[in-house]
Model the fold of this input.
Amino acid sequence: MYPSPFHLVRYGVLNAVADFKATYTWRSWSFGWLGRMLAQVLFFTGLGGMLDHPGAVRYLALGNALMTCVVDTMAVVATTSGERRAGTLSLLVASPADPMWVFAGRSLHWPVSGFATASVALFGLGPFFGVTWAAAQVPLVLLLIALTALGTYCVGLFLAVLVINVPRLRNVVSNCAYLAMMGFCGVQVPVDFWPRAVGAVVQAVPLTHTLRALRAVSDNRPAAEVFGPVVPAVLTAGCWLLAAVVIFRWLVAVPARGAGTLDLSY
Amino acid sequence: MEKYGPTRRGATKRPADGGARADAIVVEDLGRTFVDRRGRGAGEVTALSGISLRVAPGEVHGLLGPNGAGKTTLCKILTTTLEPTTGSARVLGLDVTRQSRAVRRSIGLVFGGDRGLYGRLSARENLWFWGAMYGLRRSELRARAELLLERVGLADRADARVDTFSRGMKQRLHLARGLVGDPRVVILDEPTMGMDPVAALDFRALVAELREEGRTVLLTTHDMAEAAAVCDRVSLIDRGRLLMTEDTDAVGRLLSRYERVVAHGVSAGLADRVGALAGVVAVRHEADRLEAETELPSATASVLAVLAGEGVHRVSTARPDLAEVYLHLVGRRGMAVT
Amino acid sequence: MSLFMAALRFQLRLAAHSPGTLQVWATAPLFTAVFLSIAEHADRTDLTSFAVVAPTLMGQWALALGIAGELIAEERSQGTLEAVIATPGRLSVIVVGRILAVSLLGVTTMAEAWLVAGVGFGRWIAVPHPVVLAAALLANAAAMAGTASIMASLFVLMPSARIVQNTLTYPLYLLCGVLVPLSQLPAWVRPLGRVVFLSWSADLFRAALDEAAVSRPAGRIAVVALLGLSGYLIGALLLARVLRRVRRLGTLTHT
Done:
């Protein structure tokens, strides 16, 4: 019997926990990382303060607060390429397991960290800029943050396998992806500000949909407007994950075996 | 919990091809070329060419050759991480190209050096992780990890981060990692690279245990002594070609066919006479020192007789060791061997 | 001076192919687009220059900080640290030379941002005060090298300082008015920002791109240069401590 994806993800989490502990202490996460992320929210929201445009500050605060979790989830690109550096990639390929699920598990600390960051930003910082929540809305907001974190994590996994053979591009790709999402998915300005083609492309990004849902919650709009975008968010996330699996299996592992780019020892 | 030991081996099925070939590893006319990206133009580099090799179940087989001989390329092909360009390879009757997933279930791979472990995980967690990759379930996994930690002598450091391990400890963990899937075929690619001598001795004992358990072991090394100590048979490989495959003992016998006579105070004329004797393969003469290689024991005797007859008394004989045969066979490429 | 130029040239050659430089070149246009979209959506075309200045400073600083973080360990691993200690050359000159190279290289992001504003948004920004801009860019690059040299030594002396490395990006940008001018921030924040050269550079850049006459340009450029010089002096002082440790312990690390 081959190991099931769930089994592999679970044991991949061993690495996620160890990585997180090695990267952060409780204090360095709170004051180093969280502080930096909240500053980022203030940085962009601050521009809204200069605009004299009704609603701009609130719009920017909400968008950038949710956006913080994407910075975290894009780190999956770097941790996955670490498998190559550690020499474990070829061992994973030589095992009966599908490495894709190991990748999915081993970076799960990033969406968790992202969930925490975005929660603090939305509930802690948001109210200063008019982003307030009723108690009843809290579970829904948390759900949407989780969905954003996991959805963009799937996008990150896709990018991770895409650059697994070109590790030097890992940071360029993850940063560009994250900035592109920040620019075009409705974080700073509505999606329809951009040319129609851009608007069409960003429909493939889970963040576009979860952000629309979160703004609907914030504006107390009808349930249909809140839950409507959840379906495409889940669907697009699934598509990215599937694409990652396919890409890894057929466009990375198989050609690498042919070309001999998987190194055992050196 | 699964048992370790030969009893389980006895119950294993015959290979899928009906048992006509019971060999654990069958390599037939295997070749592998790489496109040379460094050169301008599309040059091809041949890493392996026309390799044929059979390893019996339970055999410890040494793959011996200098760096760059193609040993690692062969290991990569057998562990399914690289596809051959020509020929075929089967592990336990399963084709490494077409049945790669099934092959992966029955092999364990260990390579030397520091890489291939998760430094931030403990030794135990590493084994849990890799066990899970082989589909082991919780209780089985934990028990197997404990057993292996005990076996490689890391039980007391099981919870320490691998980052803090010495090279020898990492190497032992590597071996445990390679065994966690209870593989019937274990492939060890330069496993003692960078190991200290004591650890290397421990390692030999471990390979002996693997043999007792009936596992098939393919061990690549450029260390003659190591190959001689642990292998049933050795294959010499150089520049992608298989030079020979012999029992380690037979190689020893082959070696004993050769003898060398070294004498001092020998004139050029005498050296020429020695060189003319039957069974003398080669003669080197420098200053007054003579080195004569003989092929037959009788030839050694006649060389000694001629030398004694001329009053040469500073004479010694020696048998070349495996290393020298190795040098004979791969050519005197000196530094490349060490 | 030749040592300085050699270090500068060496780093320029390295940086042109480094992933860090590639990242800054790739992200600067995106940052510009993000800032411009916010301004354009609110019909605030007067803020276009903000969207060009911020990506420039952010790109330069990211490059300078990136190189500062790895510079000394790298000099050591390639054996040049010891080599320089054994010569009369000053290591601080090499450090500053190398950081200056990347911060000069970072100036190119301003051209990128300018092009994005023009091509992408049809806002071709005029440069009414080219001399002030050029002088400010030079002074800023020098100040960046001087200031980042503090980090180069600090990360070696106090490995725990890396924890705050994160806070040297957005919190610093925010505090120094890199995007939103210091004058728009609460009064209590302003003195903090004024201590760092970035706030003076950001104001100068924006002023140089504005039609109105730049007030006291020479004085403000001098402040940037002075802050940079003090950074260099602190950096050199810390570097001397690093070298003392290397000589005494034969190692860079505490343990």
Observations:
- The mean pLDDT of chain B is 81.
